[in-house]
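Dear colleagues,

I hope this message finds you well. In preparation for our joint manuscript, I am sending the Protein kinase domain-containing protein (Jimgerdemannia flammicorona) sequence together with its predicted structure, so that both groups work from identical material. I would be grateful if you could confirm receipt.
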Amino acid sequence: MDEQHYFSYHRQYNDQTDNAVNFQYLYMLTDDFKRLIWKARMNDSHAIVVKFIRRYNHNTHTLCANQELTPKLHFHDNQDVYRFRMIIIDYVDGIPLSSPLVNKASLSIQNKIF
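The corresponding structure tokens are as follows:
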């Protein structure tokens, strides 16, 4: 049985050269069901993040990506689907910025600076 049938969302996108790229959802990246963010993988096992968001600024993402300040953007959808847009970016292994560890680390850095 195909476990992907539980994901009623897109499982394919067209890249910049209009080639179809298939991917499989793995699991949600947050426990907050209001935030639609999944880890997925392409057929070549490349890890990606699939996000469904209400607001997105492609120009800002591109500007930051060119400076290597944000993950590589693979796809963004200009069409709203139930008021959401889909974006696909590289998965980056790390600690979420909302983690208490990040907050403690940033406080210790701030104390050293000031």
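For the figure legend, we might mention the following. The domain at 3-113 is CATH 3.30.200 (Phosphorylase Kinase; domain 1). The two ends are 58 Å apart (CA to CA).

With kind regards,
E.M.
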